[in-house]
Each structure stands twice: as structure tokens, then as C-alpha cells.
């Protein structure tokens, strides 16, 4: 059994255990600063547990609950609300790994058309659908900060608008604070299970 098979087997076992079922919590941030044990914009990260836990890291995306759970070994150290793909553009279920990370990623497919002064000419533009760009228009890709690439065909986990319902073109959107925390604590090669 190779290393990834071991990780995936461990993650599958976690999904069946009670520790994989964690209730979501409302956003509660009084100081406006990140501190350990604090709920961070519709999510939670236990910095002390993350620092002391050993074992493989595994991220589990539950498209039904619109929640992402983060495990180190057998310990859940964090979770976040998310928005996955809408009907017809659903986030593909399966087992992946983080292929690449880019803190300042921008979409090469979805964005807007602006003029040379940055004024928006077309608010929602897809390079997939073609469509003409107005004279003087420039394509500006949508920001996908703290992005982690999961597939070679364009599925990423990144910062974005999160409603707790499917809203994306297939990517996994996280609230800004949680996207940053997950990004900073996730090495390339980390297992990601989408179910």
C-alpha cells in the first residue's frame, strides 16, 4: 500500500467515525484578530491541536453539508463552511491531492471586462463561453486568493463568496480567514476527499 492509499484509508475510516460529524457554528469574532481556539468567519481552527498532532493531513469536503473538515491524523483540527459547485457545474466527487498552491491566484476562465482605467464594462464574463470583448476592454480574472489546486482541469479550493449553499463554477470557496488558515497549514500533496 503506497503512502496515499494509507492516507485515503485513514480518511475513509474517519468519515465513518463520530469525530467526522462536527456541528457548524455561527461566526463569532469580538476582537477582529485571529487567536487559537477562535471561530474564524464561519469556521474554526484549533492552532494548539494542529501544532501537536501527528499523522497525515486530510481535508474532507462535504458537498451536502457545505462544510470542509480538516484532519491531522485522527484529530479534527478545523472546519469551515464552503460553497461548492452549482447544478450543472458541480464540484466533482472523488479523492484528490493538493497539486499546487498560489496565494495570489486569479482565474484564467471567469472574471470581468474592464477598460484601461479599471472601470467595469462587463461584470461577469466567462472565457469558456467566448463572447466578444467590447472595444478597449481588457479581461480581468476573478481573484482566487489562497488557492490550492486539486485537479489539472481547473478545480481549486480558494477564498471566495460563501453562502453555505452551492454557488461556484465547481471550485470550493472558503471564507477569507479560513482560506488563509487552511492554505498556510496545508502542504502540497495533502489528501482531499470530496463527497
The tally of helices reads 3
The biggest beta sheet reads: 7 strands, mixed
Strand order of the largest sheet: 1-2-5-4-3-12-6
Roughly what fraction of the amino acids lie in strands? 35-45%
Q: What is the N-to-C succession of helices and strands?
A: HEEHEEEEEEEEEHE
Q: How many β-strand runs? A: 12
N-to-C span: 23 Å
> Helix amount, in percent?
10-25%
How confident is the prediction overall: mean pLDDT?
83
Radius of gyration: 18 Å
SS-based structural class?
alpha+beta
Descriptive key words:
195 residues, alpha+beta
In short:
The protein has 195 residues and is of the alpha+beta class.
Structural write-up:
- The structure is a single chain.
- This protein has 195 residues and is an alpha+beta fold.
- 15% of the residues lie in helices and 37% in strands.
- It has three helices and twelve strands, in the order αββαβββββββββαβ.
- The protein has helices spanning 3-16, 47-52, 176-185, and strands at residues 38-39, 43-45, 57-62, 67-72, 75-81, 94-97, 100-114, 120-126, 138-149, 156-159, 172-174, 191-194.
- The strands form two sheets. A seven-stranded mixed beta sheet has the order 1-2-5-4-3-12-6, sandwiched between helices. Strands 8-7-9-10-11 form a five-stranded mixed beta sheet.
- The chain is elongated and about 55 Å long.
- The chain starts with a helix and ends with a strand.
